[in-house]
Specification:
Number of domains: 1
CATH superfamily: P-loop containing nucleotide triphosphate hydrolases
Distance between the termini: 29 Å
CATH topology: Rossmann fold
Number of helices: 7
CATH architecture: 3-Layer(aba) Sandwich
Radius of gyration: 18 Å
Helix content: 25-40%
Shape: globular
Strand order of the largest sheet: 6-7-8-3-9-10
Length: about 230
């Protein structure tokens, strides 16, 4: 199948939450596309709709209305089990809190998405390759409490990469790191983008992180307030 020009296509996405008798409009007709291999940052104040939009892009929730195509597949109408399958196949998540299993080794943590997808034979080899890609081939048997914050985030990135996803969705990826470790993580993500063509979406409050993207979407009150093209 030919590669999609746009890995993400979102058309008039809305999300309304019912809070008793009150309707909360978290997203109000958001539309944008993301090209394959692009680096996009999403910014906005608290309550702007960033988290809701991230949940939609990450196939963690359905919109109230509108269409969302991921890697050419319409996912906005899928039911929970179908969304879970798409998440595992097409999305790699990197979180501020790392979200690693505390008593498992780096290798086991990275293998998790492969286990969920039912892959058996080459699981260990694929996980080792992902850890090598993030510079942790000498830490495969270490548990999270034996790793620095930056190293834990590298494990999380390896886990996000191991299934060769259509996109990596990074939610405040440097938020729990010191400046040096944060810079290293962003350099790693951008290097992976350049060398492997990995599409990268970064949700961030940090203008310095957003400035590393090719384009920035600014959300306010559930809408795209403005779009910046940086390069």
């Amino acid at each position: 199948m030919a590669e999609q020009e746009h890995v993400i296509k979102i058309e008039n996405l809305t999300k309304v939450y019912q809070m008793g008798e009150i309707e909360v409009h978290a997203l109000r007709g958001v539309s944008f596309t993301v090209k394959t291999g692009e680096v996009l940052a999403i910014m906005g104040p608290s309550g702007s709709g960033k988290s809701t939009l991230m949940n939609m892009i990450g196939c963690l929730d359905n919109p109230t209305d509108g269409d969302y195509y991921l890697d050419g597949e319409l996912v906005s109408t899928l039911v929970d089990d179908e969304l879970a399958e798409v998440r595992n196949r097409k999305i790699g998540f990197v979180f501020q809190q790392f979200n690693l299993l505390p008593r498992a080794t780096a290798l086991t943590n990275v293998e998790l998405p492969l286990r969920y997808s039912g892959l058996n034979g080459s699981r260990k080899e694929m996980a080792l390759q992902a850890l090598d890609a993030v510079g942790l081939s000498d830490r495969v048997d270490h548990q999270p409490n034996e790793l620095s914050g930056g190293q834990q985030q590298r494990v999380a990135i390896a886990r996000a990469l191991v299934n060769n996803p259509a996109i990596i969705l990074a939610d405040e990826p440097t938020g729990n790191l010191d400046t040096t470790s944060g810079d290293e993580i962003m350099n790693l993500l951008l290097t992976l983008n350049k060398t492997d063509g990995t599409t990268l979406l970064i949700v961030t409050h940090d203008p310095e992180v957003a400035a590393l993207a090719e384009r920035v979407l600014h959300l306010r009150d559930g809408q795209i307030e403005k779009e910046e093209v940086l390069g």
